[in-house]
Amino acid sequence: MSDLASTQDRSHQELDRLAELAEEVIRRARAAGASQAEVSASIDTGLSVNVRLGEVETVEHSRDRGFGLTVYFGQRKGSASTADLNPDSIQATLDQACAIARFTEEDPAAGLADAERMATAFPELDLWHPWQIDTTQAIALGLEIEDAGRAHAGISNSDGAGVQMGQGLSVYANSHGFVGRERATRHSLSLALIAEDENGMQRDYWYDTVRSANDFISARSLGDKAAERTLSRLRSQRLSTRQCPVLFAPEIARGLIGHLVSAVSGGSLYRRASFLLDHAGKQIMPAWLNIMEQPLLPRGHGSASFDAEGVATRASALIEGGVLQRYVMGSYSARKLGLSSTGNAGGIHNLVVAPGQDDFAGMLKRLGTGLLVTEVMGQGVSTMTGDYSRGAAGFWVENGQIAYPVEEITIAANLRDMFAGIVAVGADVDPRSHILTGSILLERMTVAGE
């Protein structure tokens, strides 16, 4: 692991080198006739170990480099990229980008984000926590996780445990004179298990992902959680077709919020491919519900002081009092819509759904009798129409208590009705994502089974 350790020690020097390279290429692009230019450069380093049934399956060390360049000749755009940072490759990439730009059509929306929107403050977001774990230690940790899960009676097999360490350095620079540096780490642990009884086999898993390895749950806790989830699915049943309240577990609920983000993203809107077109300023959720983007959360999975175009990020409401306050846009989609960038080129930054007062047990009581969804399958969601239909598994709940596991069902509704029909949001927030939400209780969905 000496290479990984040295990346930690030299991270600032590596960032300086990437920044100097980016600025030099921008100068050369301007000399070649480009009116504007932007560069993204990165170095990602990692270790990934997978073990299964007490044996090592895979060990992978990675060190990936990326360099992307976009040039503008007026409003003609050309982009090219390379994974090789040597001078000849960089020059070839520049030549290619310029050649592409000269042959493309003019696009009135093309160009860098506005200069006055560039970030000028770069607060410390506590995202850099290199994990000094070597291959032997990673294997031992994976085996410890798997052993904890397999120790549970009823667990018959394992799909394996994984240990991943990752750290990334990146620079974004453009011809406005903006140079932004970022360094971040992301580490994860996972385990998938199989249980079997007279009715057949069931599989489930659990994982944890963190910025700092000090924030991991224990190997024992992760193994126990994976085993408990797997064993709880034994003797699953199907349901008859019905309409009922549905509670989405936190890790599934964030997918609902992800569908909202897709529907209010600039790309969907300027293509007129969203059921929430022209809905800014309109009520789409209950009046008590608030969703806030908070890009500067320490150790946040989506934290950043600038977006993919260098535009400064800022805390702002997406939903306030149930009303859609704004869209989610970079500069290109904003220009297509006659609006301004929201600092979301490259995506959303830490979307926080304001939690309610009830923990998971409390949310089950609020559900009363209905369906708890812990897994969804398939791609049956249309951002254009809002139609939602996906395979699902979970538990049937009666009088606030889990009665039995269910599988091979389909849940269906329209996202417009689902968002309007949110009854409650739990306090059981899942911290493993840039979308932070507790469980979400919906008033009603159609459940199709037998």
Automatic annotation (TrEMBL):
Indicate the segments forming the Metalloprotease TldD/E C-terminal domain, all copies.
Answer: 241-449
**Residues in domain Metalloprotease TldD/E N-terminal?**
37-101
| All residue ranges annotated as the Metalloprotease TldD/E central domain in the record | 129-234
Q: Please name one Pfam family that this protein belongs to.
A: PmbA_TldD_2nd
Keywords on record:
Coiled coil, Hydrolase, Metalloprotease, Protease
Q: Which domain of life is it from?
A: Bacteria
Q: Which GO terms describe its cellular component?
A: cytosol
* The keyword Hydrolase is annotated on this UniProt entry: yes
One annotated GO biological process: proteolysis
Q: Which residues form a coiled coil?
A: 4-32
Q: Which GO terms describe its molecular function?
A: metallopeptidase activity
- Family designation: Belongs to the peptidase U62 family.
Q: Which PANTHER family match?
A: METALLOPROTEASE PMBA
Name assigned to this protein: Metalloprotease PmbA
Organism of origin is Dyella tabacisoli
